[in-house]
Amino acid sequence: MGEDGVATPNGRPVLGTLLDPSGDTQARELSLALARSAGAPVRFLSPLRAPDTQCATAAPANGPPVRIASTETAEQAGQSAAAVVCEEAAEVDADVITVERPPSESPGAGIRRGTTDRIVANSPVDTVVANGCGELDDLASILVPVAGGPHTELTVRVARALAAHTDAWIELFTVVPKNPSAERRSGGAEHLAAARRFLDGFESFDTWLYEADDPATAIAEQSTYYDAIVMGAPTKGRLERMVFGSTPDSVDESVDIPVVTATSK
């Protein structure tokens, strides 16, 4: 049991990173949803400037216990914001880091990494990144593209937590080529079956095997019918993404709803 009498799995908190402590509503909602789902505490950290305590600690009456990390700012410590966050995650043995990408940062594999991408690259634990577009506190439906990648379990875990937090419906979605072979269709069905197992008893969901030549275009087109997208992070290296692009990057750049990207370690 935690200090407030709330059960915490291995005492591991969700580390909510507030790059903009006066905003970052997506980061706070993600943190609260994941902590509530796991019965864990939330630890908010603002590595760039001190947060508004009342704003940062706002939580539902029946929500998880919240803490403000007492860490020097990156400027005071002479460290980058990303280094401060990653060190804090290691020190408190965080379960996952949540962060909201600032408007000044673009998604994708640019020549220079922004703070968000440096956090993801150097984090010792799982990371969940929101794109800063829209809100995550009033969702009715969540599109969850899956393709059997290494981040599937975390992706579904995040979607399930958000859906339970907002009473939303989940659509597990996988794309196969048009007129697929029996083998490709079977592979797509297996991706959906594997993702479904990670829902862990969550019942408000459906599955969709969708035929299209380009997964990113298909996801973007279907996004108009949903309130948010939760998907796994790119599995390509930075250079390959710069040259050929990636599905998560393309989706994030093409839609105008919240996109949450999960990276498991």
UniProtKB/TrEMBL annotation:
The UspA domain sits at 142-260
Question: Which region ranges are annotated with the description Disordered?
Answer: 1-23
Extract the signal peptide range. Answer: none
* InterPro entries linked: UspA
Q: What is this protein called?
A: Nucleotide-binding universal stress UspA family protein
Q: Which organism is it from?
A: Halolamina salifodinae
